[in-house]
């Protein structure tokens, strides 16, 4: 591998704020609040992972902590050549324990900018499927207030089986009317219909995961024709038992077939490594050529919801593979 993975201009489009906490901060918070440090997997099922994800969120005990997590993430991303990061954040899952939802968003926006500058990151403001309709509409209103001021998209996460995409169609239609792109989770598990439902009801710009579509030619044809990007997180899928191993992950086949994809870590706290290490591991597991490594990194920029000048500069600096 001759490509300098740190120097490569990268965009990471699928990473969750709480699961991007550094292990040092997690240790500090756990000691301060006398809470157990959450286990890091592997996980026998997604329900176990969700429980431990919530334990990480519980470590964040103040707006000062939240600011520190966001600032530290931006600093670490910049240090490894990630020029744009889209951070999934769901304020409603905090309830009122840290302050108002607007205060939470303002804190994360300021933390990201403090660590990486004004154009290094944006928030995908998420709706939790399992919360109330009132909470969902409040999240949409929050996204509208902060769109263009740090929020770049509206997301959707949580249990797809119990809360299908059709139940959120009206919210995402309202978001589209307001000019807010949709970046929902869909098809992280193996139920292919969930990806089609996400496409039919949410009009996504990108889909977080979409793993369930990997073996279905018709759904993949729709994704390709509509120009929807799948924000894939291979090592996360392996850690959660959704794919047996990294060499068996479908991303390289999708990429080589012309399906729009991006590569992300999703949950780096649990993985124990960042996007550079993820890219290195994937390149080795899939025998990517230097040209493929460069093209895979460049592909994310086509779908990044970043300022135009950030994209232009990154693509201008993209190396020619040796």
UniProtKB/TrEMBL annotation:
Question: What species is given as this protein's source?
Answer: Nocardia albiluteola
> Lineage, please?
Bacteria, Bacillati, Actinomycetota, Actinomycetes, Mycobacteriales
Q: Which Pfam families match?
A: A_deaminase
**Protein name according to UniProt:** Adenosine deaminase domain-containing protein
Q: Where are the annotated coiled coils located?
A: none
Family according to the record: Belongs to the metallo-dependent hydrolases superfamily. Adenosine and AMP deaminases family.
Which cofactor is essential here? Zn(2+)
Fetch the SUPFAM superfamilies from UniProt: Metallo-dependent hydrolases
Q: Adenosine deaminase domain: from which residue to which, for each copy?
A: 9-313
Q: Which InterPro entries match?
A: A_deaminase_dom (IPR001365), Ado/ade_deaminase (IPR006330), Metal_Hydrolase (IPR032466)
The UniProt keywords, alphabetically, are: Hydrolase, Metal-binding, Zinc
